[in-house]
Amino acid sequence: MTDGKRRRGLVAAAAVLGGVLTLAACGGGGDGGSDGNKNNAGGDKSQSQVDEAAAKDASAAHIKITPKAGATNAGINSDTKVTVAGGTLKDVTMTSAATGTKVPGSISSDGKSWKPSGQLERSTQYKISAVAEDSKGRKATENSSFTTVSPTNSFIGNFTPESGSTVGVGMPVSINFDKVISDKKAVQSGIKVTSSSGQQVVGHWFGGQRLDFRPQEYWKANSTVTLKLDLDGVEGAPGVKGVQEKTVTFKIGRSQVSTVDAEAKTMKVVRDGKPFKTIKISAGSPQNTTYNGQMVISEKFKETRMNGATVGFTDSDGKGEYDIKDVPHAMRLTTSGTFIHGNYWGAKSIFGAVNTSHGCVGLSDTKGANDPNTDGTWFYNESQIGDVVIVKNSKDETVAPDNGLNGWNMSWSEWVAGSATGA
């Protein structure tokens, strides 16, 4: 190849390469490319001019989605919200990223915000797409995704009694947490229990997972109690946050307090401060005495099985000393297994005369729980969850306050001392 041909080939190659580089450049503002943007005889706009014009025509609506994009450990109650400034929301769609299931929600009447209608699921990734318009009808969009808190990093409190129920005057508000709470003050500060009677209500911690509330004296009959849980986002332990926002109410019914005299073998039922009925009973035998103290009925069963092996009463073969599959009219008084219940297997002559049970309080009854004319049936029908049964003159100790719903066996000063927020 001659020198002239070689030069012409190099120039052609350079021109091609220069064209490629010019086409790949964005914006046309460099000095080394074509000067068409500088000396544009045709009057075309530069890219910056196009961008500026587009910006001037952009919607004035600005959408904000919370939690922020990519967030983890988001709350499942009130954390999620879409808002707009300079416009109104036209459409918001929230879905589960895994299943595509749409989350119900609503835009506010003024069009300025949107939120889900209910509680979200834990450990779930959600996607949100929002559309808004400004006063000129110009559209703005925003998309985001986040993940809600996992069960490992959150706690919930299971409470009793149920919302809307009617209970006896001894029923405390009892909350059992599914995680150990180390910052008791923070958690208790997020819970409020009030009574329409105006009684002061104070919480008491039994260990790290149970918090009970009660007034100094039994609840006033026919009052209304309100429990408010405001725990969403409250850190109960390092890295473990609450997820509940809930308000529940329950009614206190008539007052019924029944006193069992283990020595006299009778039970006196007092309704609204007046004697109602006296019943003959058979309490724990001398070998298996009944707890003394104030006990609250926490469960009722028309019939239930009682097996001695489940509460430590076993024979030499490890079998239960008793196994009765159809105990009638049983009402639980302690977690450890103390009941007041009907007894059809004992002779009628034992009631009011001999204490024969393994620690329960027995009432005369018949097999099948269908005889309306027995003391067992009468007391079962006249009792409700939260009624108080007091046992006295037994040779046993006083029941532990946390063995069942039995915090009434603590003095008020002891009760208040177990509060993380004081009285």
Automatic annotation (TrEMBL):
GO biological process, one term: regulation of cell shape
Gene Ontology cellular-component terms listed: extracellular region
Gene3D superfamilies: 2.60.40.3710, 2.60.40.3780, L,D-transpeptidase catalytic domain-like
Signal peptide span: 1-24
Biased composition (Low complexity): 36-46
Active site: 341, 360
Pfam family, any one: YkuD
Record InterPro entries: Big_10, LD-transpeptidase, LD_TPept_cat_dom, Transpep_catalytic_dom
Metabolic or biological pathway, per its Swiss-Prot or TrEMBL entry: Cell wall biogenesis; peptidoglycan biosynthesis; Glycan biosynthesis
GO molecular function: acyltransferase activity; peptidoglycan L,D-transpeptidase activity
Domain L,D-TPase catalytic intervals: 256-392
Coiled coil residues, start to end: none
Region (Disordered): 28-56, 99-122
PROSITE patterns named in the record: LD_TPASE, PROKAR_LIPOPROTEIN
UniProtKB keywords: Acyltransferase, Cell membrane, Cell shape, Cell wall biogenesis/degradation, Lipoprotein, Membrane, Palmitate, Peptidoglycan synthesis, Signal, Transferase
Top-level taxon of origin: Bacteria
Name assigned to this protein: Lipoprotein
Organism, scientific name: Streptomyces bingchenggensis (strain BCW-1)
